[in-house]
């Protein structure tokens, strides 16, 4: 008997060579989720650092706030670009909408951690309830982002006069409304490109998160986890969802505040 | 049959109100830090100091999310360090790219 007593914990279901050995005291799935998230941290960090590098290579708009005009000669001030709210057309309400989005995502992270906590207690009713709230938060956030993108792409009423090289290779000066990957009314082309790639990549993560949350909500509601005997899947999806929130905290600071 | 299906086969542990209270407290801290960032965005002049404050507050928030929500602090120490230590590479990335960006600025303008 004494020979089987090792320093590492061995699961009774699998042998020591069958994956039952857990030196980090976390299951295979949880461990791999952590390492995936680490690689994802690098992806997002590369995006945000590239944003910072491109941004410092341009001068920043330094004129008075009330006469701000977009130009590809200088980097725009975020609070003068992101100043719109749904149903309040033409009002200048800087950063309010993105603040609301941040609030929604942080709250959905809180309901997620409450679901994980309920999972530790094997409380099926609580897990299902909190997962539903998290799911609603995720869908609301995505809807907000859809509006934000739509507004960014369609632009303001006045637009801006931009001089740029068009896709035929000619230098043209014309009034630009909204944004695409080639030209935009807010600032240099890189500004809109980075907006689309960074918030788009984050939104893609949120979309996957919403699918996973729906899966967890459905499975906990019909009792799959109860029959399985544990709620570890909720915990793993929870890690992913908190990561999405973590990334948004950084996107919010680097894209909308600085 | 239906009642049998709904009956829990697992032992449901009652709520620990202390733990739940701590989660809501963390949420409040996160929202307060975001509110502070908001106020600073409109009251302080733009500049290096403000950016440093923003980045500091953001890392502070990240710490709360990773430690309290993702329970990274409760994991085994080797797992904790295998997540935290590789982030050192990001320090180099930020320094290298910021240097590069400001050099491009000097050439262009």
UniProtKB/TrEMBL annotation, chain A:
One of its GO terms (biological process) is aerobic electron transport chain. One of its GO terms (molecular function) is cytochrome-c oxidase activity. The chain crosses the membrane at residues 31-54, 95-118, 130-149, 194-218, 239-257. It is found in: Cell membrane. It is a multi-pass membrane protein. Pfam families: COX3. Keywords: Cell membrane, Membrane, Transmembrane, Transmembrane helix. GO terms for cellular component: plasma membrane. Its main location: membrane. The keyword Secreted does not apply. Gene3D superfamilies: Cytochrome c oxidase, subunit III, four-helix bundle (1.20.120.80). It comes from the Bacteria. Residues 1-258 form the Heme-copper oxidase subunit III family profile domain. PANTHER family: CYTOCHROME BO(3) UBIQUINOL OXIDASE SUBUNIT 3 (PTHR11403:SF2), CYTOCHROME C OXIDASE SUBUNIT III (PTHR11403). Belongs to the cytochrome c oxidase subunit 3 family. This is Cytochrome c oxidase subunit 3. It comes from Mongoliibacter ruber. The lineage of its organism: Bacteria, Pseudomonadati, Bacteroidota, Cytophagia, Cytophagales.
UniProtKB/TrEMBL annotation, chain B:
One of its GO terms (cellular component) is plasma membrane. The keyword Membrane applies. The chain crosses the membrane at residues 23-42, 78-98. InterPro entries: Cyt_c_oxidase_su4_prok (IPR005171). It comes from the Bacteria. It is found in: Cell membrane. It is a multi-pass membrane protein. Keywords: Cell membrane, Membrane, Transmembrane, Transmembrane helix. Pfam families: COX4_pro. This is Caa(3)-type oxidase subunit IV. The keyword Cell membrane applies. It comes from Mongoliibacter ruber.
């Amino acid at each position: 008997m004494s020979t089987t007593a090792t320093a590492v914990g061995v699961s009774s279901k699998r042998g020591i060579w069958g994956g039952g050995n857990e030196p980090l005291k976390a299951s295979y799935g949880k461990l791999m989720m952590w390492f995936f998230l680490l690689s994802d941290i690098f992806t997002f960090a590369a995006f945000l650092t590239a944003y910072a590098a491109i941004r410092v290579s341009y001068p920043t708009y330094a004129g008075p706030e009330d006469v701000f005009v977009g130009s590809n000669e200088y980097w725009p001030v975020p609070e003068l670009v992101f100043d719109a709210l749904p149903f309040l057309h033409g009002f200048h309400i800087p950063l309010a909408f993105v603040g609301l989005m941040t609030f929604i995502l942080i709250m959905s992270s809180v309901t997620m951690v409450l679901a994980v906590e309920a999972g530790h207690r094997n409380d099926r009713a609580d897990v299902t309830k909190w997962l539903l709230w998290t799911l609603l938060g995720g869908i609301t956030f995505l809807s907000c982002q859809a509006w934000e993108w739509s507004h960014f792409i369609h632009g303001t009423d006045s637009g801006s006069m931009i001089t740029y090289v068009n896709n035929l290779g000619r230098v043209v000066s014309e009034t630009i409304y909204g944004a695409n990957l080639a030209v935009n009314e807010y600032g240099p082309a890189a500004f809109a490109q980075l907006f689309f790639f960074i918030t788009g990549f984050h939104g893609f993560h949120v979309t996957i998160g919403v699918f996973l949350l729906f899966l967890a909500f459905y499975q906990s509601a019909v009792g799959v986890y109860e029959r399985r005997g544990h709620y570890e899947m909720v915990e793993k999806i929870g890690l992913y969802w908190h990561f999405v929130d973590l990334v948004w905290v950084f996107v919010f600071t680097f894209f909308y505040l600085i | 049959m239906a009642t049998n299906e709904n009956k829990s086969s697992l032992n449901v542990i009652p709520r620990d109100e202390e733990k739940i209270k701590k989660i809501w407290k963390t949420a409040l801290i996160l929202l307060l830090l975001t509110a502070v960032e908001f106020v600073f965005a409109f009251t302080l002049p733009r500049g290096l100091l403000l950016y440093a404050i923003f980045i500091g507050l953001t890392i502070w928030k990240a710490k709360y999310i990773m430690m309290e929500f993702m329970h990274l602090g409760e994991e085994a120490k080797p797992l904790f360090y295998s997540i935290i230590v590789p982030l050192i590479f990001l320090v180099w990335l930020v320094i290298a790219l910021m240097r590069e960006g400001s050099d491009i600025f000097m050439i262009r303008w």
